[in-house]
Design brief:
heterodimer, A: 429 residues, alpha/beta, Rossmann fold, 2 domains, seven-stranded parallel beta sheet, six-stranded parallel beta sheet, elongated, B: 402 residues, 7-stranded beta/alpha barrel, five-stranded mixed beta sheet, globular, GH57_Enzymes (chain B), carbohydrate metabolism (chain B), Alpha-amylase (chain B)
């Protein structure tokens, strides 16, 4: 089977979980001898050669062909000059935006030039990039032989749709996060939702990263449940990570690590922290990450008068992330809506017991974790207190959790994916 | 004889270095030596050295008829000793003329008067000892509290410490129809004379001097003389209180601020009936006109002239209360490093950086802060404070064990 896959990012150049998931999936497909053509807006050249990589920035589009012009016209609805940042809060948006790259590029004038230099980021010109990506997809669909089209998240859906128009092959829309996760109930409007909806509806089959996400796809986007398969994420490496970092504070550490945005439920963590500190002052809470709710969380911590027990680290990367997991006694992911959520699995790899919200996809695969409703701060506080004070339960979760992790392999995920591919391929002769 | 009283505030905080959560319990050095040194050197070149040289010339030129006063915070003196002995020496020369008065203040430019009488007095004594050591046995007679913060109660504490006078802001909401250009008395202990800042004329120099959108721009000595002459004859004292960094740092040399000061005494002597006095001369010479009633603390900051620049939001209140919760424990500890950090952590600037009042407007506040946001300032300070608390608690445990 030859799969034409459209992504948006690929390790090592990633800013979210999407790239990591694509990487794991391709690794798994390699085990099952599937041929993958993987397209990204921008390649850096240091990607692991796991697939037939296509750099969209290098693809020449023959503008004289009528077909391309039609595609482009169909895509013009994307070129809203919107100040749109689907994945990032305002602060991170600033950091990720590459203003200089194509700050002043004018769509109408440059649209039919041969190549387009993508940033492949989540910046100001995201909509334009998404549209151009689709344009490039038509060229690729024409020149590269393939049996199936597989597109990851809304950014690549227009590309998937455009490719299908050219080759007529079955199109799979893989959904890693919906606009409802990112924006709550307010997600049901705006261009991202529209693109998601168009992609899911145009798809011959939909892959959701959890039952939770499948439920949203069915209920909020009106997709028939038979058309949706659940394909959980896995971990690349389930081995326990040993760390030699020394903890310098005598207190136990309870950690939140993630973007400090509505979706991640940071405020519930703060409220639970207060309840724990009231009962046990020998605990420190850490909120690691950045996001548009950071300042609000800082204010709330001061208001609750726990400024010397509740700390903020800002955005962490690389070794700092590992160190943070390693010195934590409990990891909490109180997400309001988490399609999957890979971070708790990372915590497990560091032998740190985890508390996850029932509103997360990962809760469907990780049995050995305490699961609470994100809004139930009393239950969250009880769970934190229990893991800190009753070593036997913490030990049990550590041991069983790491055993469980060993079964969450990408090759198992890929095997399931191959059956979906085959079914779809056989349906459309 | 009417008189002008100049007081210049000389202060630089000891800034905290970027201190991460991971440093808590591990790194016990909090101070940003590089930026502290480079800021002292920069301000020395732009302000302290040239302005001190100018003042020395003027004092000599007018045979002591032109005089000024300074309040130099202890934390600033410490930094002069480390990074700018040349600046310290130039201040010593000024004081040695006998026409420059030094005021008393808290060692750390702290808000301790609002937290603890014991700590307040300790800080005043520490500053007194430092002045005595560095300025040939000099003993200040008049007190000025951090940011001119004053209330009846603070005045009473200051009187108890034996001071004759104290400086504060001529805040409109305190004075009402009254004029700042008189000597007043503390409401509780009338022995303490109160000098009030004439904020109109002070801020004409300190803030508006180079403001081209100001209707009175440019400010000339003639214009200033006219305003002095317009003051009713019975009003005897004009207190011009300002940051010393006004000269060359807030108002750059290019604005002509040095020339303005150089020309000012001549104009005053020739065109007005004013002389120059130091605060203790005013305290001695002026007849107190009334008691001043200040039940709630005032300061010289912002339009509000209150404490909200330092203790106006939850971040500041949290940091402040967690800091002073340590006082009792620290008193039991005999460790110079703990005491040094305890002192420097009290500097008012750390709390000023956490002010969110101007966050939306940005500019005014960010000029004085090296943090991107007040939230960053809070996070950094609380990390340091958390480490400090651990150290104090460990020391207390050691004490209990022995």
């Amino acid at each position: 089977m030859k799969v034409l896959m459209f992504g948006w990012e690929f390790p090592p150049h990633i800013s979210g979980g999407l790239g990591t998931a694509c990487y794991g999936l391709i690794k798994g497909l390699n085990v099952h001898n599937q041929e993958v053509i993987f397209v990204v807006p921008k390649l850096y050249g240091d990607e692991e050669p796991l697939a037939d990589f296509v750099n969209a920035s290098e693809v020449e589009v023959d503008y004289r062909e009528k077909k391309f012009q039609e595609t482009w016209e169909n895509l013009t609805y994307l070129e809203i000059n919107s100040y749109l940042v689907p994945y990032l809060g305002p602060e991170e948006f600033e950091k990720y935006t590459d203003y200089t790259l194509h700050h002043s590029s004018d769509i109408d004038e440059t649209v039919f030039s041969n190549k387009f230099q993508f940033s492949g980021k989540y910046g100001k010109n995201l909509m334009e990039e998404v549209a151009r990506y689709a344009l490039v997809a038509t060229q690729i669909a024409k020149s590269k032989d393939h049996d199936l089209i597989h597109a990851h998240d809304w950014l690549a859906y227009p590309a998937g749709i455009a490719a299908k128009e050219i080759s007529g092959k079955p199109f799979i829309a893989h959904i890693h996060a919906t606009q409802f996760d990112r924006a709550g109930q307010g997600g049901a409007s705006g261009p991202v939702y529209e693109i998601e909806k168009a992609g899911l509806q145009a798809a011959d089959h939909v892959l959701a990263v959890s039952h939770l996400t499948k439920k949203i796809v069915v209920e909020k986007y009106g997709i028939h449940p038979d058309k949706v398969s659940v394909l959980h994420n896995a971990v690349l490496d389930a081995s326990i990570i040993k760390s030699d970092i020394q903890k310098h504070v005598p207190e136990k550490i309870v950690t939140f690590l993630g973007r400090i945005t509505y979706q991640k439920g940071p405020e519930y963590f703060v409220e639970a922290a207060k309840k724990v500190i009231e009962r046990d002052p020998n605990v420190r809470f850490v909120m690691a990450g950045n996001g548009d709710l950071l300042n609000k969380m800082v204010e709330r911590v001061a208001e609750l008068k726990m400024g010397t027990k509740f700390h903020f680290t800002g955005f962490l990367k690389g070794k700092d992330v590992d160190d943070m997991y390693a010195i934590s006694d409990v990891y909490v992911m109180p997400s309001v809506s988490e399609p999957f959520g890979i971070a708790p699995l990372e915590a497990v790899r560091h032998n740190t017991p985890v508390i996850i919200s029932k509103q997360s996809g990962v809760a469907e695969v990780l049995r050995n974790a305490i699961k609470i409703d994100f809004w139930d701060v009393d239950a969250m506080a009880d769970a934190i207190f229990g893991l800190l004070h009753y070593p036997s339960i913490a030990k049990m979760f550590k041991e069983l959790g790491s055993e469980e992790l060993k079964n969450l392999k990408w090759e198992h995920v890929a095997a399931k994916l191959v059956t979906v591919y085959e079914k779809l391929h056989n349906q459309k002769p | 004889m009417r008189t002008i009283c100049f007081y210049f505030q000389v202060h630089q905080p000891l800034r905290i270095k970027p201190y991460r959560f991971f440093d808590i319990g591990d790194d016990h050095y909090y101070w940003d030596d590089y930026s502290n040194k480079s800021i002292i050197r920069k301000v020395a070149q732009k302000c302290y050295l040239p302005m001190n040289a100018l003042l020395l010339d003027m004092i000599k030129q007018y045979n002591g008829k032109f005089k000024v006063s300074f309040s130099i915070s202890g934390v600033c003196l410490d930094q002069f000793e480390s990074y700018a002995p040349d600046v310290l020496e130039s201040f010593q020369k000024l004081v040695a003329t006998g026409h420059v008065e030094l005021l008393s203040e808290t060692d750390a430019h702290a808000l301790s008067a609002l937290a603890s009488k014991t700590e307040f007095k300790r800080m005043v004594d520490a500053h007194k000892a430092k002045i005595k050591r560095l300025f040939n046995g000099y003993e200040p007679k008049v007190f000025r509290n951090t940011e001119l913060i004053y209330s009846d109660k603070i005045g009473e504490m200051v009187a108890d410490m034996g001071f004759e006078g104290m400086l504060t802001e001529g805040a409109k909401h305190i004075l009402g129809w009254k004029s700042p250009n008189f000597v007043y008395e503390n409401n509780i202990n009338p022995k303490l004379k109160i000098l009030l800042k004439n904020f109109q004329l002070s801020d004409d120099i300190a803030f508006r001097f180079s403001n081209k959108t100001w209707s009175d721009y440019p400010l000339t000595t003639e214009k200033f003389g006219k305003w002095l002459n317009a003051i009713p004859k019975e009003q005897e004292t004009v207190n011009l209180f300002m940051d010393y960094e006004t000269f060359g740092e807030h108002q750059w040399a290019e604005t002509g601020i040095f020339e303005f000061m150089k020309a000012l005494p001549n104009m005053v002597f020739n065109q007005t009936d004013f002389s120059f006095s130091t605060p203790s001369e005013v305290v001695k010479g002026g007849k107190p006109i009334a008691k001043i009633n200040v039940p709630v603390p005032i300061s010289w900051a912002d339009e509000e002239r209150d404490l909200t620049a330092w203790l106006g939001n939850d971040l500041q209140n949290e940091a402040f209360s967690k800091l002073y919760e340590m006082e009792e424990k620290i008193r039991k500890i005999d460790d110079p490093e703990i005491w040094k950090d305890w002192t420097y952590l009290q500097t008012s600037d750390h709390f000023y950086y956490m002010c969110t009042k101007f966050f939306s407007d940005g500019a005014v506040h960010s000029y004085f802060s090296h943090y991107e946001t007040p939230y960053d300032a809070f996070i950094n300070y609380m990390n340091v404070l958390s480490d400090f608390i651990l150290r104090v608690e460990n020391k207390v445990k050691e004490l209990q064990a022995s």
